[in-house]
Amino acid sequence: MKKIKRIDLWRWMIIAFVGSYLLIPVFAMLEFSTRGAPGERSADAWTAIPTFPKLLSSVYSSLQLAVVVILAVVFILVPTMIWIHLRLPHLRRYMELICLLPLTIPAIVIVVGIAPTYRVLYQIFGSSTLTLSFVYFILVLPYSYRSISASLFSIDSHTLSEASRSLGASTIRMIAGVIVPNIKVGIMSGAVISIALVLGEFTISNLLNFETMQVVINLLGKRDAATSVAVSLAALIFAFVLLAILPTTNRSRSSKLKTNRKAKVAKYE
Amino acid sequence: MQNKERAISLKKFETNSLFRKIFPYLGVVPFALLALFFLIWPTLVVVYGSFQNLEGGYGFGSLIEVVTNEKYLNGFKVSIKLAAYSALAGSILGGLFSWAIANGNREGYFRRLVLAASGVFAQFGGVMLTFAFLATFGFNGMLTILANSYFGQNILTDASWLYSLLGLVVVYTFFQIPLMLIVFLPAIENLKPEWKEASESLGGSTTNYWLRIGAPILAPSFLGALLLLFANAFSAYATAAALISQGSPIVPLQIGFAISGEVSRTNPGISKALAVGMILIVVVVMFGYFKLQSKVSKWVKS
């Protein structure tokens, strides 16, 4: 009994220490952005957010970018992965290699190599921030690949695809109507990480001179620190709420498994 | 009628064995093109460009400049130090944190909350993180002001420590801890309670259990996570760029300076040579990570 208590004491000491490391800076952002006259709180920094049109438009283009990247993940990465999984299994290793490659090539290095490509893109598409979605798609590859491939391996995709084909489904129907709903959770968690990554990206957009949210926040920070801290905190809370409400773990499945296991244990007993 | 014709032409195609062989590969073309133009090609540009010399010709000039110039060598030294210290701090704190979370209620709301927050914080590096720490420890930061009003002049008063190597380590550790939690929690939750019970029933103490069972089992996962954290910090640019406005103490900042400043016009090879140096280090580290990772998965399967 005494021992359990000691473990709990250690647990909570660690949680309190690490937790305060992570939460004090976040709380400080709240405190800093609501400073008024000495000894007073004020919401001036927060109400000032809409008065920076550049800031609003950059938030808008970053959100647009996040949507385009997620669409690319859903309509390019997911079908390709399913296709390779089912039809071209000998390509799986190369696919994995390509998808994990961005982990070994720092974003700052990608900027160096991709700058000439973007000079060409500028000629074709103009200066639209949306052209960043090409390189952001590459950036989110490792994270989306991992979560999607984990759920692809957890289902019996071959049986599913053969069953749907024998019932007369076309390839597109088989992928969109049968496989995708079964790996929804993996796609969702990949999408959420992609949103967080796109909204937080600074390196590439800054050095390629695109005005994404982070670039504008950084510029604003030199002029109006309180407001840029307020926007940062708002973005942080937004990403956290997204991650907390979207079902990124398949809870119903895991609880089902658990009851199955319990039933099995009961049978053996 | 039309359908029939189409059927016939399709049949013709299908009897064409070459087409049948190639057809499945068409499905990967869009993805392959994207990967080619935005991942493979830029990497080749960097590697190829690192052989550009000062005079515009080709040779080892830029690469030699990078490995002999005191400034760039020092950049690599500070970068490696920063990555190593923050990876160590992050893996130890994050490892303990994983243990604390794993010992709690696994279906509970608290665990879910912590995991969601970790997902955000691990991607939180960059401008926003810099502002968070400036709001905490900066010259006008919350803790700086608090410490001043309670203790008078003290170590926190001079906020310039935040801009030094120590400051960078403290800031980087902030995003290393949640990353450690994400990669290490599954490993620590794989420890079966039966093993602990077995060790206890044989008279082993808690220390015995951790030294002889826990540590050997977790060692590959922990080392792998340590390497991943190292690569993560070594590659990071945004946080340092937003924090440090003068000088380029670490390699990513030197690259950023080289491509945005005058350097690239006088010597276009330098940024690429520095980038090749970064790739080499990260590839070696990540190779170790993947090796350890496969060791872990083999072990878990058997």
Tell me what the structure shows:
The complex is a heterodimer of chains A (269) and B (302). Chain A is mostly helical. Chain A has one domain: Orthogonal Bundle (MetI-like fold). Chain A is built from 13 helices and no strands. The longest helix of chain A has 34 residues, at 53-86. Chain A starts with a helix and ends with a helix. Chain B has 302 residues and is an all-alpha fold. Chain B folds into 2 domains: 1-49, no CATH class; 69-301, MetI-like fold, CATH 1.10.3720. In chain B, helix 3 (29-49) crosses helix 15 (269-301) and helix 6 crosses helix 9. The mean pLDDT of chain B is 84.
Q: Largest interface, by Cβ-Cβ below 8 angstroms: which chains and how many residues each? A: A-B, 78 and 78 residues
CATH level 1 class label of chain A: Mainly Alpha
Helix percent of chain B reads over 70%
Q: How many domains would you count in the coordinates of chain A? A: 1
State the distance separating the first and last CA atoms of chain A.
29 Å
Query: What name does the CATH topology of chain A carry?
Result: MetI-like fold
- Kindly estimate the percentage of residues of chain A that lie in beta strands according to DSSP: under 5%
State the end-to-end distance of chain B: 60 Å
Uncertain runs of chain B with pLDDT below 50, 5 residues or more? none
Q: Got a strand count of chain A?
A: 0
What would the keywords be for this entry?
heterodimer, A: 269 residues, mainly alpha, MetI-like fold, disordered C terminus, B: 302 residues, 15 helices, globular
Q: Quick recap of the structure?
A:
Chain A is 81% helix and 0% strand. The C terminus of chain A is likely disordered. The model of chain B has no long low-confidence stretch (mean pLDDT 84).
Question: How do the strands and helices of this protein lay out in sequence?
Answer:
The complex is a heterodimer of chains A (269) and B (302).
Chain A: H1 2-33, H2 44-47, H3 53-86, H4 92-104, H5 107-125, H6 133-154, H7 157-166, H8 171-182, H9 184-200, H10 203-207, H11 213-223, H12 225-245, H13 251-268
Chain B: H1 2-15, H2 17-26, H3 29-49, H4 61-68, H5 70-102, H6 109-122, H7 127-137, H8 142-151, H9 165-189, H10 193-201, H11 206-235, H12 238-243, H13 251-260, H14 263-266, H15 269-301
Helix pairs in contact in B: 3-15, 4-5, 4-15, 5-9, 5-11, 6-9, 9-11, 10-11, 11-15, 13-15
